[in-house]
Automatic annotation (TrEMBL):
Pfam families: BPD_transp_1, OppC_N. PANTHER family: ABC TRANSPORTER PERMEASE PROTEIN, OLIGOPEPTIDE TRANSPORT SYSTEM PERMEASE PROTEIN APPC. It is found in: Cell membrane. It is a multi-pass membrane protein. This is ABC transporter permease. The chain crosses the membrane at residues 34-56, 106-131, 217-238, 273-294. Residues 104-294 form the ABC transmembrane type-1 domain. Belongs to the binding-protein-dependent transport system permease family. Keywords: Cell membrane, Membrane, Transmembrane, Transmembrane helix, Transport. The keyword Ion transport does not apply.
Length: 307
């Protein structure tokens, strides 16, 4: 029995865990503490926005819950309804904490929604321009150059002056002023990928153009598209806040962060800083967290930038 035990083969070592591209991407992304912190902060902000009706102490869009007698209460004050206003109230008696949480909801909806739609439009036109070439490429890229020649805020103001206020109209305006960035980015990547052997093989197999564009060409153009999309989300949030601050964004009954800042702007020098200060901090933290993630995504998805 002892001889059998001595001659027994040693236990096999556990198989090495196969490193997939997704696992490598995750490990490289979380290797940066700054990007990880940005992701954690953004996740908290997104959860606050999603569960706003259950987290916020007050519905700031319900005019029946607002009491003008609670207007401009200091942070920590107790209102007439017994609610503790931890961040104070604005001039309409709206709880600032509730307003910020609901404002984040609008800002994220507008930012992510407009970026997603603009990426669909811009990526499709960029792929078509790179693949078709010739006159099609010239026409699309001249439209891109024309779009990018206008100041973004000026173009958005002109569009909203025509369409009017509203969340949907703000999304439409942002899509119109953002799609060109995606088109130019995807076209540059697609021009490189178009010369690859797999595209020539797909053409030799007489595959439909739509399948070549969206099943073969687009997946290889995703890394720069993801990076641009992340940055454009932050840019769209900032642009929406600017438009609302100027009075051409969302309606006053559904204030976003930009409109909350505008409501307290006139009180900044009278000591009632909290009406604009706390929404501004929330807007700043949101944009910075997204930019931190986007900046590191650029390093992870672009091997040339890795040190």
């Amino acid at each position: 029995m002892s001889d059998i035990t001595a001659n027994a083969a040693p236990p096999a070592a556990p198989a090495a865990r196969e490193e997939t591209p997704f696992r490598r991407f995750v490990s490289e992304f979380f290797a940066s503490k700054i990007a990880t912190g940005g992701l954690i902060v953004f996740t908290i902000i997104a959860l606050l926005a999603i569960f706003a009706p259950w987290i916020a102490p007050q519905n700031p869009y319900d005019l029946a819950q607002l009491d003008i007698m609670d207007g401009r209460l200091e942070p920590g004050a107790v209102g007439g309804s017994g609610i503790v206003h931890w961040l104070g109230t604005d001039d309409q008696g709206r709880d600032m904490l509730s307003g910020i949480i609901y404002g984040l909801r609008i800002s994220l909806t507008v930012g992510i929604g407009s970026a997603f739609i603009a990426s669909l439009v811009g990526a499709s036109l960029g792929l078509l321009a790179a693949y078709a070439g010739g006159r099609t490429d010239s026409v699309i890229m001249r439209l891109v150059d024309l779009q990018l020649s206008f100041p973004t805020i000026l173009a958005a103001l002109m569009i909203l002056a025509f369409l009017g206020k509203g969340v949907g109209n703000v999304v439409i305006a942002l899509v119109i002023v953002e799609w060109a960035y995606y088109a130019r980015t995807v076209r540059g990547s697609a021009l490189v990928e178009r010369r690859r052997e797999y595209i020539e093989a797909a053409q030799c197999l007489a595959l439909p153009t739509r399948r070549i564009l969206f099943r073969h060409l687009l997946p290889n153009c995703l890394p720069p598209l993801i990076v641009v999309g992340t940055i454009q989300v932050a840019r769209a949030i900032a642009l929406e806040a600017t438009l609302s601050f100027l009075g051409l964004g969302v309606p006053i009954t559904e204030p976003s962060l930009g409109l909350l800042i505008a409501n307290g702007y006139e009180y900044m020098l009278s000591g009632k800083y909290w009406i604009s200060f706390y929404p501004g901090i929330a807007l700043l933290v949101t944009i910075v967290s997204i930019n931190l993630m986007g900046d590191h995504l650029r390093d992870v998805l672009n091997p040339r930038l890795k040190k």
